[in-house]
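Hey, I'm writing a tutorial for new members on how sequence and structure tokens pair up, and I'd like a real worked example in the thread rather than a made-up one. If someone can provide the structure for the chain below, I'll link this post from the tutorial.
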Amino acid sequence: MSKFLISTIARQFFFDSNKGSIFLLLITSSIIFFLNLNGWDLWNPDEPRYAQVAREMRDTGNWIVPHLNSEVYPDKPPLFFWLIAFFSFFTGGVTEISARFPSALAAVSCALLTFFVGRQLFGTKAGLLAALVLIMSIEFFWLGRRANIDMTLTLFILLTLTFFYLGLEEEKYPRIFYLAPFLFMGLGVLTKGPVGFLLPALTIVIYLAITKNFDHLKRLNILWGLIIFAGIVLAWLIPACLRGGEAYAHEILFTQNIDRFVDAWNHRRPFYYYLYTFPAGFSPWFLLLPGAFLWGFSKEQKKNRIKFYFPFCWFLTIFIFFSISTSKRELYLLPLYPAAAIMIGGFLSHFSFQTERTAFPFKTLILPFYLVGGAFLTMGIAFWGFPFIETPLSESFSFSAYILLLAMIFILGGGLIIFSARKRQIWSSFLTTAFLMFAAFVITVQGVLPNINHFKSAKPFCKRITRYLSEGKEIASYRVKTSPFNFYTGLNKIKKIPTSAELINYLDSPSTGLVIIKEKAFNQLQEKSLIPIDIHIVDKAKIGHRVFLLLFKGEEREEAI
């Protein structure tokens, strides 16, 4: 009786109350995204690069044209770097916290907005379920704690679509609600280029076309909206192109956008790439998406299907857009995660408290939770054996303890999910799954990631580099991305050597100090007898899966390896 009473009170306070739902979301999302934010160093490929761009902005005072390694950086617009630099004034410089804080803040904001949109579409319970699904998904959690641009972009796209839908549903709102989407699309463009405009604009147009509601375009004040949008973008773009020159203008306008979309030079993937990467990123909730689709197009939803069309068009537009693009990364799909979560939230809220076994869509809830429970059980058993396998990580008592804790939680929780699914207790299955994801995230940020930092971070190697660097000598790199070495040595300029011929000439130069080179490249040059005899290896480090060497010119030092 007391268990039933507690469960009823919890439902009424958290799932049927706006204030209770917001309180729960603020607590859980803040723990997930802000806890131990500086618990490990900035990792490749993106974090040290974006942090270094922000630091060079602060150091040089050039806030218009981003620079990396003291060279113009035309890959991205500046807004995300502005945010990092802004928060760095509170942390005494660009640090792990200031670099990651914009993403963490954007993630919490996205959770609250997802709740708000889900509530508008399907009710308070659906909104809360949607927000919990969002923050408990793997890719959203990961990018919400990294110094990556995509979470900030997702926030602006979500704000655009939120204000659009408010204006669509409620005619009582003032004019600013119809102009706000253009404001946020402008900020989205300043964050990551044209996708900040194209993704929400295509979603809006497709949704209005499917619902045959083009009359709404008149209320959007498109002319004034475009003026606001253009004003925001051009206020930065014009001075940036004037200061950066023709080459910068061509790079930021065409190469980094049109060329990357049509004929990418990196991250090239087949068109079906996201069919197998999205399920992994949206784990474990992607198993509920088929049921959500069936529910949205079922006869039961015929009267309210127009509401389901909104997140469905949002999801499908972004998925197809990036599937067509030749450049693909898992994180590109992040702006569709709120849409997927909202559809699942509506689906779960409709059936989560029913026990009727014959309801058609209700059956699609049972199998996913069986699979989720089985997955947790399997991972728990695998984790249980990990500390007994001889690896560098298993030698750490702290790491092994956290892994064993995860194993125990996964085994117990996986069994409870399966048991609840057998009893048709979808409410218990969902809450147990959400709790397991929450526990896994907390354990990961407190114990797992800090323990593997030694294998991923360039910081220890960089600290040693600064000890070897002599006054009046310069440091160079051969075919190595310099950003992690820039950031953790504190040097805004590391000479880049692109060819072996230039490297040989450089090694003969009297100004030569230190050279950072990959071990594989060094061995290839040594096999060809291209390395001078007065060049010595003074240090060596494995960062991620790559091994780097530090070369010194002169008499062999005692520190040499």
